């Protein structure tokens, strides 16, 4: 899906590849800020991790199916007492879920979390761009020239500085040690960089569900790498579909022997395919990244659907604003890197809606539990995937407290 353009005459799709490459130039300046924000992701002292294990304050109900379940006895994610889907929730439950989502979105500091996710997104863009250019070069050597001369042509006049950066990156990717090696290096670099994004997204999801990361590193890292591989494959596939237009598609079609009818069909179905790819990527991130056993895997959850709709509306609104104003305010303030700044803004909005959708899914789960009589007022009652690492950290914290208390009581004396 195209990002908004910064100039009225530039094509929206050209902004994707241009700003993706140009953004790598300023990524180093974001390291310090992202590190500080990422620290907030790892631990928020204002929102404790510990689950409530006290007695149920609501008392008993008349029937077994409606009896409150104490937080200490976490029910199964798909307990039969819970409403099966959003359509089974009552109106007051829906009202509570919507209000609670808005409150938790603010208290979880999702705007800061989205900023950290933007940084990790930027790190993966350079290697991903190299991989995409290498794939195009393998399919058709002339496709790279078409990409530079036609797909990026509108930027040459609107943002010459960004154009120079992009063309230099494409030239290096296509000529240095062959496109085959560039493909391998690009994919490995994209996987390593994107694994940082998946890790940060998982910590943000843990914040949303108010749980610690309890999986040991030998279990967590392979899971993150598998999720990374799946998401990177989907993103690269989506990017290839996005840039495959006009002469580029025709050249690739000639190489693999696709006729004109197939090309016409591809141009029609490419946008629905991109939507399906986005849905799959979101579903994988939502389900596998947090340390919580959620209800059964769903390709489309209410939160992911809401995220896609809000993302589409926000992207369209940003595009309309930039088209009407011609991106003048950004161009005056940021000059040649205005397109890069707009792309950063768009990435921030994208991660915001992803976190909002996850927050909404979490609060819908809380609402399902509350309607089923499960005491989820303080903590969403879903079991964690693993607690070994969090238990180890809790024990270390207790030891540190004991050591600090002994130091205070002895006034620092060893005798």
Automatic annotation (TrEMBL):
Keywords: Cell membrane, Membrane, Transmembrane, Transmembrane helix. The chain crosses the membrane at residues 20-41, 117-139, 179-204, 225-248, 268-288, 300-322, 334-358. Pfam families: Virul_fac_BrkB. GO terms for cellular component: plasma membrane. Signal peptide: none annotated. It is a multi-pass membrane protein. PANTHER family: INNER MEMBRANE PROTEIN YHJD, UPF0761 MEMBRANE PROTEIN YIHY. This is Membrane protein. It comes from Amnibacterium kyonggiense.
